[in-house]
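User: Predict the complex.
Assistant: Input components as received:
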Amino acid sequence: MARSTGLSGFPEWLPEGRLVELEVLDTVRRVFELHGFTPLETRSVEPVDVLLRKGEIDKEVYAVRRLHADAADDDTLALHFDLTVPFARFVVENAARLDFPLRRYQVQKVWRGERPQEGRFREFTQADIDIVDVDVLASHHDAEMALVMAEVFASMPFLPRATIHVNNRKVLEGFYRGLGIEDVPAVLRAIDKLDKIGAAKVRTLLLEAGLAETAADQVLALAAIRGADGTVADKVRALGVTDPLLDEGLAELVAVVEAAQRVHPGAVEADLHIARGLDYYTGTVYETTLEGFESFGSICSGGRYDALATDGRTTYPGVGISLGVTRLVSLVLGRDLARATRKVPSAVLVAVVDDDSRSASDAVAHALRARGIPCEVAPRAEKFGKQIKHADRRGIPYVWFPSAEGDTVKDIRTGDQVGAEAATWTPPDTDVLPRVVAATDIDEGAS
RNA sequence: GUGGGUGUAGCUCAGCUGGUAGAGCGCUGCGUUGUGGUCGCAGAUGUCGCGGGUUCGAGUCCCGUCACUCACCCCA
């Protein structure tokens, strides 16, 4: 089993866990590139004032400085805590050299100083896609973000079913404004906790925030609305609150949900209680839960930011969504949802008959590798029983026995052993590389 | 940062009102003397998180400390 102890919040997986993580990383890269997103990496470090630009002084960032820095060196750097803010900075800095609308993906580690907990780390990997344009970004990209991620999830059948919940900040803010609510951030924060603490406690929070009872009830009624088509807007309007911003938000929200529904039915739904704190989001917001693990939190979130990237003269509105790779992998490994079919890439262990004939075994390995079959040569010329055990422990499915009378290869799962030539023998496609499959499939196969 | 819980073998854990450390799994060897897995037998492994105190004696009680963990906050 993979472990994540050691330095709390800085997870390290065992090899079999890393194979699961790589499967996720390979999948996101493949799907992102299939959709034309171009790769980008930004430096790990930003000036503190870039990271905390929006006045969010309480962000838990890690400061970075030279061990030998003198007091005079006050250029404070910090590790980035997400990929959106550095990307916005990068866009503004390189706008003259970039082509818009810009579609980019970015997969990197980020750092946050918060107290670690299950699924919450201090160092973790995010996989982001964003699209930014100049002055105005077409609204159909809001649906596209969710659809690309829906495809990522569909490409990992070992995962529980993922639902991308979509809302629109304009809907919430317009609705609240129509109700005459003043402290919108406080209401957003309260609504964001609905899943965790329930409607009754949220209502108490709302009353504490100064809402009238009727307003609190209206806010909760809005938050309870869900759906995957235009009827969502009807349900909101039935609450009787009117506001121009509300109408604008509803139109955007319905457009996103209906567009997604046409391509990936069931993967995306409008959920009017998604609020997303008080960040830089201005319109569409996303949050993703896995069926059966809703309380684990969102594994893929994001939203539209119309004002994050600006040089004062030109604004680059964007929309993006971020997959929490480490959180997702920690869930898969921690709950044993899926496993790699073996711990090492090798499909074949080439046995060594005796120390003098190691070169013959090396030649077999060379021939197999030349045809793309990962293999390794036994480390010691031990009794064959031990060499087979070596393979068995690691999950290597085949052991190759070189012999002057003709080589043989044994499938140690079935015990079948047949004559074979290194220049032509090929394992089934499913055995060439380790695969990641649902744990239940492995358990059934073993029994 | 605030509050609760837990630290004993590689892993999961037991160890009563203080008496000198155990189980299962795993590991090693043998049976099977160059074809593993099952089974049987034998064997190895611990600064009991760390430091101090009480005591004839501390894994056990007290104080401190560190780590991990859960909740708040925030979020992937």
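The longest strand of chain A covers residues 300-310.
Let me know if you want any component modeled separately.
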